[in-house]
Write a structure and sequence with these properties.
Oligomer: single chain
Distance between the termini: 103 Å
Number of strands: 16
Radius of gyration: 39 Å
Keywords: Glycosyltransferase, Starch biosynthesis, Transferase
EC number: 2.4.1.21
Enzyme class: transferase
Strand order of the largest sheet: 3-4-5-2-1-6-7-10-11
Protein name: starch synthase
Pathway: Glycan biosynthesis; starch biosynthesis
Strand content: 5-15%
Length: 666
């Protein structure tokens, strides 16, 4: 009974049964000792024939009194513990209040610091403008205008001029003038691809890369896409359907569309889903159907209807390739008078291979007048004169045209790569610009690449040797940082004839290792497997799988990246190679085959000028010899290449903003 009562009391007191408080343990032991003594005495008395009943009664009363005292003591302990618990809760609440107060103060302090930094930046800009006046760079009238620009665009100024301390007065003035002239553009891209939602070719990375670069510099960019059934929406945030239906014109009637909106990489994206013509984009592929003209003409018209009816007034409608080139004629013939008088049209062409030739009467499907457009100076095809050329219509009706080409000049493109559009391009030559593609330097940067065992930069290349040894170890090649390692990424473009195999064989005799990444082309993979077998698996590895981490390591660990050409817009291989300190060398079985195409070119891109002077003259064997014979000179060449910026934020951005700026005054 005693143990049960003790357990109950201790439980009420809030103590574990297995570990009661020490003073309670002592009290219990003392009472047990007394009880045992009394019990022993009682036993003896009973044996001696004493008054057993009276003695037992006294013992029970004493035991009862002891238990009652113990119970009262337990109650006092419970009350004390409750009081202590209340004190502890109050202390905890007080600590939480103090913690929240501290966090609030920290947030306020950070806000003040941000505001202080922004104010410091604005004042530093204003003081630099004062300095420009005093040194005679600008007059007082221009200075007044620049000051108004700075104070009137405080948010954009903080984003654009964050690197003010690294700029000379002349550089800062050029940037201020550019900023003052352009202010902020509102650009709507009407296109058929966007990474990572839907990607077929180079257009997808171009749309995303350029849009991110533009928004980073303070411009507002929106993208309109068809709502394909094959869209990958995993990276789209806030996807929702707009409740109101959008009606657009097609084939003589108005048809309903569902409109979806969301955010991708900070870019606002609108998806258009036809209802009546639901089969247009409910297919496995993006391109390659007999009704592609109808599909993308419907989308182009619906995009313009959406822009007009939503009250948007963008500065630029940016359209791409033939699929949305029809926006040009539609805009100027129908939509410019619907509140879009300040909008201009820019067309980007990634190539002229696909132009879309159609019967003239099909133009009426989207509301255009076939008779007025089927003319030599408008949409009539130069060769097949009974047809209209949709891409030509985009060229004619756009205010500016950007041709994506990393290596070729405007003149070379018109004369050699126009695919029958040379007369139109020649007439509209003044509105043509050439832009290189770019790459995402937030993902592809060896100084912060999460996939590398050791990061490195142009100032400290030690990590590159570590990456090479790690790559060799991972693929089972002999580990030696002094061995020349050649990586080849875009193998689907390679022509593995006997001469190419001979080049590889000869290089391996000079202690050169090769890593080839597999292709979707079965014949190429077969040739690579055969080549690896012939080399007895000693100096070559063939990786026939996609492994993003390994891909980053190949760029970092390679001394040379073998490219089909320097004009490689899809995987941006040469651009990434330069960033990772690997020399891009063109694949050619003829040592002199490549050299002519960059010689004597005028108005080529900055990328073309750099690559032709630094690496364009090199064959694979020459590059290997330079690495081995003059390592210090080679190291400096690589370091110089790594600091060049060929990302979307650089020349590609500059070309497009210059086009937007020029259109603004038209």
């Amino acid at each position: 009974m005693e143990s049960v009562i003790n357990s109950a009391i201790l439980s009420l007191a809030g103590f574990p049964k297995s570990n009661p408080p020490i003073h309670h343990q002592k009290a219990v032991k003392a009472r047990r000792a007394v009880c045992c003594s009394l019990s022993s005495s009682t036993s003896k008395n009973s044996n001696n024939g004493g008054d057993a009943n009276g003695l037992l009664k006294e013992e029970e009363e004493e035991k009862y009194n002891d238990i009652w005292e113990l119970f009262k003591e337990a109650q006092q302990n419970i009350l004390y513990l409750n009081k202590q618990r209340l004190v502890a809760v109050e202390e905890l609440n007080k600590a939480n209040r103090e913690k929240q107060l501290l966090l609030d103060k920290i947030q306020q302090s950070e806000a003040v610091n941000r505001l202080g930094n922004e104010q410091s930046l604005w004042w530093e800009l204003l003081l630099r403008i004062d300095s420009m006046v005093l040194t005679g760079l600008i007059d007082s009238a221009e200075a007044s205008g620049l000051r108004k620009t700075v104070m009137g665009n405080k948010f954009s100024v903080a984003l654009v001029f964050f690197d003010i301390r690294q700029k000379t007065d002349a550089e800062l003035l050029a940037k201020l003038r550019h900023f003052s002239d352009k202010n902020v553009f509102h650009i709507i891209q009407i296109c058929t691809e966007m990474e990572p939602l839907v990607s077929v070719g180079s257009l997808s990375s171009y749309v995303t890369g350029l849009s991110k670069a533009l928004q980073k510099k303070g411009h507002m960019v929106e993208v309109i896409l068809p709502k394909y059934a094959c869209l990958d929406l995993t990276e789209m945030q806030g996807l929702r359907e707009i409740e109101a239906e959008l009606y657009s014109y097609f084939n003589g009637q108005l048809h309903g569309n569902r409109i979806w909106t969301g955010i991708v990489h900070g870019i606002g994206v609108t998806l258009i889903q036809p209802l009546y013509y639901s089969s247009f984009f409910d297919r496995e592929r993006v391109y390659g159907y007999s009704d592609d003209f109808e599909r993308f003409t419907y989308f182009s018209r619906a995009s313009l209807d959406y822009i007009a009816k939503s009250g948007k007034q963008p500065d630029v409608l940016h359209i791409h390739n033939w699929e949305t080139a029809i926006v040009g004629p539609l805009f100027w013939d129908i939509f410019v008078k619907q509140g879009l008088g300040g909008t201009r049209v820019l067309l980007t062409c990634h190539d002229f291979d696909s132009q879309c030739l159609e019967q003239p009467d099909k133009l009426a499907l989207c509301g255009l007048d076939p008779a007025s457009l089927h003319r030599p100076d408008r949409l009539q095809d130069h060769t097949m004169t009974h047809l209209v050329n949709v891409l030509k219509g985009g060229l004619v009706y756009s205010n500016k045209v950007v041709i994506v080409s990393s290596m070729y000049s405007k003149e070379r493109i018109i004369s050699s790569f126009s695919h029958g559009l040379e007369p139109t391009l020649a007439i509209h030559k003044d509105k043509l610009l050439v832009s290189p593609c770019g790459f995402d330097n937030s993902t592809w940067d060896p100084s912060k690449d999460k996939f590398l065992p050791k990061n490195y930069s142009a100032d400290d290349l030690k990590g590159k040797s570590i990456c090479k040894v790690a790559l060799q170890q991972q693929l089972g090649l002999s580990r030696n940082s002094s061995t020349v390692l050649v990586g080849c990424i875009s193998t689907e473009l390679l022509d593995f004839d006997l001469n190419i195999q001979k080049v590889v064989w000869n290089a391996t005799q000079k202690n050169v290792q090769f890593i080839f990444v597999g292709s979707k082309v079965t014949s190429v993979n077969g040739a690579l497997e055969y080549l690896q077998k012939e080399l007895k698996d000693e100096t070559m590895r063939f990786v026939n799988r996609y492994d993003e981490a390994l891909l980053h390591l190949i760029y970092a660990g390679s001394d040379i990246i073998w490219c089909q050409s320097f004009h490689d817009p899809l995987p941006q291989v040469p651009l990434k190679a330069l960033k990772y300190g690997a020399a891009p060398v063109a694949v050619t079985s003829n040592e002199n085959k490549f050299r002519h195409f960059v010689a004597h070119e005028q108005e080529t891109t900055r990328f073309s000028q750099f690559i032709s002077s630094a690496f364009g003259y090199l064959s694979l064997s020459q590059a290997v010899d330079e690495i081995k014979n003059n390592p210090s000179k080679w190291k400096q060449k690589i370091a110089d290449a790594m600091v060049k910026d060929f990302s979307w934020n650089a020349e590609c951005y500059d070309v497009h903003v210059s086009a937007y700026t020029a259109m603004k005054s038209l």
